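Residues pack. One example:


***
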Amino acid sequence: MGIDTGILFQPFETGGLHLRNRFVMAPMTRNFSPGGIPSDGVAAYYRRRAEADVGLIVTEGIGVDHPSALGQESMGGGASPVLHGDAALAKWREIVAGVHQAGGVIVPQLWHQGVIRVPGTGYHPEVPSARPSGIWGPFDGAMVPPDYLQLVREPTAPLTENEIADIIAAFARSAANAKAVGFDGVALHGAHGYLIDSFLWAQTNLRDDGWGGDGPSRARFAAEVVRAVRAATAPDFPIIFRFSQWKLQDYGARNVATPAELEAMLAPIVDAGVDIMDVSTRIWSTPAFEGSDLSLAGWVKKLTGKPAIAVGGVGLSKDLQSSFAQPTVMTNNLPLVAERLASGEFDLVGVGRALLMDPHWVQRMRSGTEVSPFRLEAYASLY
């Protein structure tokens, strides 16, 4: 007898979020917001997925209200949205209203590219990139284009105390704007080597002041961002925090090597006011530590007590980076996902590229109808 996937289509509630099922549209950079203002196509893109029964939509990364937040990164870019200024806020208000009219729930992913941003690019090219210790990270394990590496190789000045405070305040302003335009919560990008994660990772945080040191000390910046966002919104305004081990600088990187280290690093972040942990891995089911089959999402939920989103390769045969170079097919791996979710390992399922290929993916999975095939060109389109 096959495993019943029905649990994935059951409602889920936590804090102020009321979701119609367990499927979360994972954040994916789209670059269709020239000048930082989302296009009409972006509005239709999110509404289309809300109409097709996605439980929770987490938007693409949206630059926080700081001049160094956005620029070109490892795969190019340059047209990411912002969440400040009258024009951008008006468009986001329209987008949120459209999603709500379709019965959906939507949160913005607040993003500061940090060390990943190419200096001299973005909406404020005159501003240096923000790096905790002035370095991009180790170059020998980087899976990024060589031309990009040349652009980020030069060290910069480490962030000062005042600059750190300014960036924390920028996250808070953007979170307040998110609440003002009607978003249902906020998500904070604390993964993949971007700014928050570059404080967490010992290879990019070499500081010997109050912002660096052991795991809990390196988590201070993330915790202060969460605390500022909480203060700028409301006690019951949902906050989602994205965490990963892997980085754009090194897919094999680790912020922590043991469950005990993971618990110590995440405790101050969660205690600052996180409601849900969004745990990004290349393949969601990969065991996180030796001696256990538990995924990273499973460990995060076990150690923090917070609901967890498992992310990575749901609905597809290859991880993200491999899909650029190797044949990739849409696949139904939901029985295993459902089995692990039913066991209590995690609570929600992040789906990225499968929903990029087919906005009706959730509905098709429920009805058992054929989904749209994998198309590499979908990465560069907006449907």
The first helix runs from residue 40 to 51. The mean pLDDT is 94.
